[in-house]
Protein: Ribosome-recycling factor
Organism: Rhodoglobus aureus
Amino acid sequence: MISDVLAEASEKMNKAVDAAKDDFGTVRTGRANPALFQKVLVDYYGTPTPLQQLASMVNQEARTLLITPFDKSALKDIEKAIAGAHHLGASVGNDGSVIRATLPELTEERRKDFVKIVRDKAEQARVSLRNVRRKAKDDLDALTEVGEDEVARAEKELEASTKAHVDAIDDALKRKESELLEV
C-alpha cells in the first residue's frame, strides 16, 4: 500500500517536472524554434487545434520560421493565430502557400520579461509538486492497516522525493535563465 502511494506520487511529480521543462521550451531565446509555437491554437473549422497538427514548421533563418500548412484553406486562420500570439511578438506574412513568421530581435528589457515568465512557470510547477505531495501525505495518513513507524518512514521518503523534483525544476530554471540572459 505504501509503495503504491509513493510510486503514484513519484510518477505524478515526474510528469510535473516534464511539463515544466516543456513550458520552458515555449519561451523563446535568440533563435526561432518550432517549440515556441507549440502552444499556439488555431481556430480550424470552429475547433481550437494545435498549430503542429495543421502545418509543418522549418527554421529558415535564425529568427525566421517557415510554416507550410497541410491544408491551404487554413492559411489565413494560421496566420491570424500566430499574429494573435502576443508572447511571440512575431511579424507574419504569407505568399499564398507558406507563412513566414519573423521574430524580433531580443532587447534586454524583453529578455528580463521572459525571465519573469519562466520564473512564474517554475513556481507553478513547484505548486503542482506540493499539491502532489499533500495528496500523497493524506493518502498515507488514511492508511490504517500499517504502523505509524512505516508511515513516518514513507513520509520522509516522500519529502526526499519532493525535494529532488523541486531541485530538478530549479536546475532547469537556472539553465533557461542563463540561456535567456546570454547575448
Summary: The longest strand covers residues 64-69. Helices lie at 2-25, 75-84, 108-142, 148-181. The longest helix spans residues 108-142. DSSP finds four helices and six strands in the chain.
